[in-house]
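Schema walk-through. Below, the input block comes first and the output block second. Nothing else is stored per chain. Lengths vary across the set, and this one has 114 residues.
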Amino acid sequence: MTVSKNIGRGGARPGSGRKKKPGAGPITEMPSVTGLSAEDLAKALTDFAMVGLVKIAAEGASESARVSALREILDRAAGKPKPGVPAAKQDQLELDDNWGDLLKSKQPAAGRAN
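--- output ---
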């Protein structure tokens, strides 16, 4: 039987394994508990939330975090579009090329019928 000379095969090694992702720092400014309703409290903390979004947009660890924060800021500034209602453009309203008749045809959609 051979005896291992403990030359570093196997086992845990420093620096091995998955690297930890950078995380957000702790929130240091916590509001005090009040008797406000959720809606009133949300209105009161709008500035706090906007500062947090701006900080993430400027210094976020990942590009997706920055894009999400910027989208949220724009949604609050310009208003979020309602789902299912396409935005109408002026040139689309004046143009009538009969494509609507083709799209409204009563033929079934292609695919499997169950």
